[in-house]
């Protein structure tokens, strides 16, 4: 186990695996050696996010901020801590597989690094300084978490609305398909009657044509057969249309059944997401 791990272990044990709400005195092995620190433990973030925040803030306090191994702000101004400039070292640490990220902040005044052994007023000011920025980080994280949850809720609600619209379209499609199927049945019957109407005359002409060369009779027979065949084609088309429309209505009925199940699951997911959003809103309210 590394020296940094040894230094980190008591802090993890002290918080029993949960994030802190208050700054704690600790120590950390910076590149120049071990220093007393004011440390804060976050949950649900990472080293990069915490260090990025501190880097931006340190640049507001110091004209010289380096970030090679750790963040170092030289000649930083923190009037509430010291009338002189101070040196601030900051490093975030997250152990592999752990949801916790610890921010170690060392504040070096002319009297040395702030620790519980420092002058109480100065130490308390340093703690308040780190606490304020840690709270701002927590607020940013909670706001981001809430925003993502709200976006997720909006997405789920949008998906539910789309399912509802799809169900309405399917219901309209069933009504339209049933109507077309009924019309196809009527057409089928009409064309069947039409095809059969000329049947007796066609049979009669077919018998007569074999006994005569009358061109007019032959032409009449050809015309009637053409009309019959055309009616039969339309009858078959109507039968096919009826089958297609009936199948389409059946398919849409199945789609609606599945849609209703999907809506139920989506509604359940929305309820869970609403609970999450509400809990995150309450969490954000508690961060002060």
Number of domains: 2
Instruction: Give me the count of strands.
Output: 7
Mean pLDDT metric: 89
Biggest sheet descriptor? 7 strands, antiparallel
Give the number of helices.
5
- CATH first level of the largest domain: Mainly Alpha
In the predicted model, the low-confidence regions spanning at least 5 consecutive residues are: 1-17
Distance between the termini: 36 Å
Output the CATH topology of the largest domain. Helix Hairpins
Please state the structural category.
alpha+beta
Percentage of residues in helical conformation: 55-70%
Element string (H = helix, E = strand): HEEHEEEEEHHH
- The Cα radius of gyration reads 41 Å
> Which architecture of the largest domain does the CATH hierarchy give at level 2?
Orthogonal Bundle
Report the portion of residues in β strands: 15-25%
Query: Globular, elongated, flat, extended or rod-shaped: what is the shape?
Result: rod-shaped
Would you kindly provide a written description of the structure presented here, covering whatever features stand out?
With 288 residues, this protein is α+β, with helices and mostly antiparallel strands. It has 2 domains: 3-118, no CATH class; 148-286, Helix Hairpins. The chain has 5 helices and 7 strands. Strands 1, 2, 3, 4, 5, 6 and 7 form a 7-stranded antiparallel beta sheet that branches. Helix 3 runs antiparallel to helix 5 (215-286) and helix 4 packs antiparallel against helix 5 (215-286). It starts with a helix and ends with a helix.
């Amino acid at each position: 186990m590394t020296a940094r791990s040894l230094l980190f272990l008591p802090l993890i044990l002290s918080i029993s695996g949960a994030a802190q709400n208050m700054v704690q005195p600790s120590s950390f092995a910076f590149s120049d050696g071990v220093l007393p620190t004011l440390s804060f433990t976050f949950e649900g973030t990472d080293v990069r996010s915490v260090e990025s925040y501190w880097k931006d803030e340190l640049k507001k306090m110091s004209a010289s901020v380096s970030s090679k191994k750790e963040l170092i702000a030289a000649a930083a101004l923190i009037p509430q801590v010291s009338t002189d400039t101070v040196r601030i070292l900051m490093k975030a640490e997250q152990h592999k597989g752990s949801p916790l990220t610890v921010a170690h902040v060392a504040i070096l005044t002319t009297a040395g690094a702030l620790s519980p052994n420092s002058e109480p007023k100065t130490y308390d000011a340093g703690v308040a300084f780190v606490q304020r920025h840690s709270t701002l980080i927590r607020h940013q994280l909670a706001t981001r978490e809430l925003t993502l949850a709200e976006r997720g809720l909006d997405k789920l609600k949008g998906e539910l609305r789309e399912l509802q619209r799809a169900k309405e379209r399917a219901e309209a499609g069933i009504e339209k398909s049933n109507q077309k199927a009924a019309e196809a049945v009527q057409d089928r019957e009409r064309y069947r009657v039409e095809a059969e109407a000329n049947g007796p005359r066609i049979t009669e002409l077919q018998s007569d044509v074999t006994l005569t060369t009358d061109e007019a009779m032959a032409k009449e027979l050809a015309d009637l057969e053409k009309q019959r065949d055309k009616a039969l084609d339309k009858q078959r088309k109507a039968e096919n249309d009826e089958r297609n429309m009936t199948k389409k209505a059946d398919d849409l009925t199945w789609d609606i059944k599945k849609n209703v199940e999907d809506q139920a699951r989506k509604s359940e997911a929305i309820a869970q997401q609403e609970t999450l959003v509400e809990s995150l809103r309450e969490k954000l309210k508690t961060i002060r």
